[in-house]
Design brief:
By secondary structure, this protein is an all-alpha fold. The chain is built from 7 helices and no strands. Helix 1 crosses helix 3, helix 3 crosses helix 5 and helix 4 runs antiparallel to helix 5.
Length: about 170
C-alpha cells in the first residue's frame, strides 16, 4: 500500500471516494501509515481491513460481528496466499543487489492488495449499516469490531493502539 495518492478533491470528500482511493488517501498520511504498520506487525492485523473499517466509519456506517467475519473470510484467501507471501519475498529481496527484484515484488504485492481491497469493496457494497452503541465513535466501533478476531494476550495495548488509529482516521476525514 505504498502507492502515492494524488488527488485534488478536498479531504472532507473522503466519504465519496472508492475504498481504494480512500485507502490510498489516508495511508499516504505518515501517522496513519505508521499506526497501521504497527498494528500489522505487532498484532498481525490486516491493514486493508483496518482501512476498510475507517472507510465505513467515514460514511457513518458500522460493522456487526457477523459482517466482520464475512469480511475476514472474503479477504483471507488473497491475504494468506498472495499478499503475505509476496510481502515476505519482497522483504527477503531487500538490498542494493536486488533492487529490481525488490521493486517487482513490491508492485506485485500492491496488485494483490488492490485485488483484496476490491473484494472487500464488493462485499461492503451489499452490506447494510448497523446501529452502534451510543457514545462510541464510528471509527473506534468498527476497529474494535475487527479487533475481535485478535486472539493474542495484548488486548489492552491493542485497544489503546486502535483508539490512536481511530483518532487519526477521524482527523483525516475532517
Amino acid at each position: 500500500m505504498d502507492e502515492k495518492f494524488v488527488d485534488d478533491r478536498p479531504r472532507e470528500a473522503l466519504r465519496d471516494y472508492s475504498l481504494w482511493d480512500y485507502a490510498l488517501a489516508v495511508y499516504s498520511q505518515p501517522a496513519i501509515q505508521a499506526q497501521c504498520l504497527h498494528l500489522q506487525d505487532r498484532y498481525d492485523l490486516d491493514v486493508n481491513l483496518l482501512l476498510a473499517a475507517g472507510y465505513w466509519a467515514c460514511a457513518q456506517r458500522c460493522w456487526s460481528n457477523a459482517q466482520v467475519d464475512e469480511l475476514v473470510a472474503e479477504s483471507a484467501d488473497l491475504r494468506e496466499n498472495y499478499v503475505l507471501p509476496l510481502r515476505a519475498l519482497r522483504v527477503k529481496a531487500a538490498g542494493p543487489k536486488r533492487k529490481f527484484l525488490y521493486q517487482a515484488l513490491k508492485n506485485a504485492e500492491l496488485a494483490a492488495e488492490r485485488l483484496q481491497i476490491d473484494a472487500i469493496a464488493r462485499l461492503l457494497s451489499v452490506m447494510p449499516s448497523n446501529v452502534k452503541a451510543d457514545g462510541i465513535d464510528d471509527y473506534e466501533f468498527n476497529l474494535q469490531a475487527y479487533a475481535r478476531v485478535y486472539t493474542g494476550r495484548e488486548r489492552v495495548s491493542l485497544m489503546t493502539d486502535l483508539n490512536e488509529l481511530a483518532a487519526a482516521l477521524a482527523a483525516a476525514a475532517i
